[in-house]
Target: DNA-binding MarR family transcriptional regulator
Amino acid sequence: MTSGRKTKTPKSPTPAPVDAMLCFAIYGAAHAFTRAYKPLLDPLGLTYPQYLVMLTLWEEDGQSVKTIGERLGLDSGTLSPLLKRLEQARLVMRRRYTQDERQVRIQLTPKGDALRQKAVGVMQEIGSATGCSLNEAETLREGLVDLRRRLLKQPTT
Amino acid sequence: MTSGRKTKTPKSPTPAPVDAMLCFAIYGAAHAFTRAYKPLLDPLGLTYPQYLVMLTLWEEDGQSVKTIGERLGLDSGTLSPLLKRLEQARLVMRRRYTQDERQVRIQLTPKGDALRQKAVGVMQEIGSATGCSLNEAETLREGLVDLRRRLLKQPTT
DNA sequence: CGCACTTAGATTGTGCACAATTCAATTACC
DNA sequence: GGTAATTGAATTGTGCACAATCTAAGTGCG
Model:
């Protein structure tokens, strides 16, 4: 309540900035996450988006590009070069399915699978960095997932 | 303790993915926001980060690049080209301060100031697209701001 | 078969994001 | 005054993100 923000330019209508503040907050939190992960991921040779892709593969190996894209909300234009870099780093292999040669199956190499061990430490450090209880984190997560679903549901009109 | 999430590949240790899920959620929500804004911002000729910069200028005109960067958490390497595009679009002007010529003062043009009117509509549409009550939005926002603060507070070791 | 249609990935072009570097202006200290 | 250190922007290089486009493989229907 109160919402005592000082507006310094009262000449034109500046509407209640609640939604603006929410978009600021998400924007800032997303970047903060990326920055917090960076020093932990650098020793592993992974960027943050690459780490997210590896997480999905550690959870289930051998997914197609499309499947990974659906989970992370990314398209092939983003994933193709990213997966190429992971392939160059010898963390994954890319093979066409024999039944349907349009699909590319992404599989962990032994090196990529082994990296999972180190990732465990990363997750723990981030967990402590957030300083959240599991309850807090889960509440926040649910709110975000909900928000995301609602935002994507709009056909834009 | 407990952390009863189902793991699909039990062969290697996949730790409780609570934090991983949170980082997924933030990542996804941030992208969802960008996508939700895109069709609304396209007619204005703004990208989402450009819109955020304009929001800060509508709130307070004549800020330096450094000030804008601190508010949004961006550095000059990101802002310089972005502000140049806004200048090319005749939405802002860039002038050096006379007292300290190292600083660049970003000022709205009449066109940039006028755009504020249309932005009001954008904010309202997004507000309804989220389908959140103001309370929900505010709770979520506070959680994110908190999280961000804690993440950034780590000196990384 | 032959043709339109759909789908999976890859490619191209624009723009954001940051680390590292460079440059100029200011400030501090002698 | 003169040199060193600091500060504000800009530049360069790498990588993410998406729209639009393209190719090739699969599918449907006559």
